[in-house]
Every structure is written in C-alpha cells, then in structure tokens.
Write the structure tokens for this entry.
Amino acid sequence: ARDSDETETATFGLGCFWGPDAQFGAIDGVVRTRVGYAGGTTRDPTYHSLGNHTEVFQVEFDPDTITYRKLLNLAFESHNPHHQTSKTQYQNVILTATAAQQSTLNEFLSAQGFTADGISTRIEQLSQFYLAEDYHQKYKLRSVSSLMATFNEAGYDDQAVRESPIAAKLNGYAAGHDVAVVRESLASG
Ligand code: MHO
C-alpha cells in the first residue's frame, strides 16, 4: 500500500506563472505549489535573465486525492492547445517527470484526439526546474498584506510560505478560486 504522505509533482507552463500557481493551488489534493523556470538549456535563469526558459509552476499533489490525469485535464482546459505564443517566457508546455506521467499524458492526448505533433502545446521531459525568486512565489497571496503579516508573525520566512500547504490554498482564495467550486468541477469532470 502506498504511504499516504507520498506526493507526486506535476510541472506545467501556462503563461505568466502567477495565475496558474493560484488556480492549481486551490485544487483539493494539491498540497504545495512552486513557481520557477524550466524547459530551456541556459544555466541558472532568473526572472530578468531568463535565457531560453519558460515560466512554469509545479504542483505537489496527493495522488490518493487527485490524479495526474485530472491535473492534465485542467491544464488543457486552461489553455488553447492549438495556439502558442511566440514568446518563450509564456509558452504552454507540459513537462513530464517520469515514465508514468509520460504514458498518462499519451493516453490523455489520444483520448482527446490529440497527438503531440498535432498540437501547439510543447510536450517535453522535465530536465531541470529552477525556483523563481521569492517575490514570485504565492504572488496573489503576497498582495494581501494582512495575511502575509499573519504568516510573518507566525514565524514563516519566504521559504516556509512557499512550501506551506495553507499558503497554497490562501493564494488560490486570494485570486478568487474557491476550493469547494474546484472540487465540484473535478467531481463532474
Ligand atoms: N509582467 C507581467 C507578467 C508577470 S509574469 C510573472 C505583469 O506584470 O503582469 O511574467
């Protein structure tokens, strides 16, 4: 039996990472989120020196509560796979980390009538994920100064806020994503 504490991590690029960081953080079963840079080859990207990388977000999830396939479904509902922006920074990309994710993705694509070559969304293997700067992590939550003050008073530093499950939920809430609504749409989808 699987250790109930065991999580899995999915990595997607869906435009500016602030929005999907909040959207996916609200999902029941997503326990942590992080934003960063991936998909390119240049070393040690930063926001102002991105090289050929793309803004991406990672969701660490409990596979007993939500599946990689459902996250893929949401990722594809959140962008148009027949359109791609020319700016590498904001491109749509699915970055698989394991053979299991790769095969789930292949099944998902064929169930949708898609092929990796027939859509504009980039389909790649994740080689390296570079964490973005602290001020980009939980960006929507950071705009709610009363909540940030509460985290700070409770002793959370930037890393602790980034890794906090409750911060992921509040980040979603701050952006208008209601956990209960997300749960409902997943149940029907
Ligand atoms: N510069 C844009 C997008 C930021 S996103 C982290 C803005 O200020 O909305 O690339």
About this structure: The mean pLDDT is 94. DSSP finds eight helices and six strands in the chain. The longest strand covers residues 30-38. Strands lie at 8-14, 30-38, 54-61, 92-96, 122-125, 130-131.
